[in-house]
């Protein structure tokens, strides 16, 4: 890593190439995510439902949380849409990870899946 140190107003500043900066940001985000996972495990309440390890791995790999929870619950797109009172086409879009700002509909999906909204927002 190519670093240039600059002193200004009694403070030292490290100047690095932009690509190195982006790599450091990515590593910091990964470290934060990993620390967050540890904290999540520590917060588990005895008897609280957890996904099987293979599904957790899919979530950590970035796969869509709605799809994973839907499959875990054994629901088709049509069944999830019907129970949530929304169109199957909307469910199909978010199941594929298409971004949406329809929080009201996402709340209904989370309710049907039996999860907190934050658990599905991570990948929507």
Task: Describe, in plain words, how this protein is organized in 3D.
There is one protein chain. By secondary structure, the chain is mainly alpha-helical. It is built from seven helices and two strands; from the N terminus they run ββααααααα. It has helices at 18-43, 53-60, 65-73, 77-84, 88-95, 103-113, 117-121; strands at 4-8, 11-15. It has a two-stranded antiparallel sheet. A hairpin with a 2-residue loop joins strand 1 (4-8) and strand 2. It is elongated, with a radius of gyration of 20 Å.
Helical content, roughly? 55-70%
Secondary structure class reads mainly alpha
The largest sheet, given as strand count, sense and whether it forms a barrel, is: 2 strands, antiparallel
The count of β-strands is: 2
Q: Radius of gyration in whole Å, from Cα?
A: 20 Å
Q: Could you report the average pLDDT, rounded to the nearest whole number?
A: 80
Quaternary structure state of the chains depicted: single chain
* Amount of beta strand: 5-15%
Q: Identify the overall geometry.
A: elongated
Order of helices and strands: EEHHHHHHH
How would you write the strand order of the largest sheet?
1-2
Query: Helical element count?
Result: 7
Amino- and carboxy-terminal Cα gap: 35 Å
Unreliable segments of 5+ consecutive residues: 39-45
Architecture blueprint of SSEs:
Layout lengths: L3 E5 L2 E5 L2 H26 L9 H8 L4 H9 L3 H8 L3 H8 L7 H11 L3 H5 L3
Antiparallel strand pairs: 1-2
């Amino acid at each position: 890593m190519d670093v240039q140190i600059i002193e200004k107003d009694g403070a030292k500043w490290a100047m690095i190439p932009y690509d190195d900066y982006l790599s450091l940001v990515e590593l910091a985000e990964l470290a934060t995510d990993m620390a967050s996972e540890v904290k999540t495990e520590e917060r588990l309440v005895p008897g609280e439902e957890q996904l099987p390890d293979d599904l957790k791995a899919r979530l950590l790999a970035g796969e869509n949380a709605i799809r994973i929870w839907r499959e875990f619950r054994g629901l088709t797109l049509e069944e999830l849409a019907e129970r949530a009172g929304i169109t199957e086409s909307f469910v199909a879009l978010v199941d594929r990870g298409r971004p949406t700002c329809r929080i009201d509909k996402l709340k209904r999906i989370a309710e049907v899946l039996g999860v907190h909204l934050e658990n599905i927002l991570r990948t929507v």
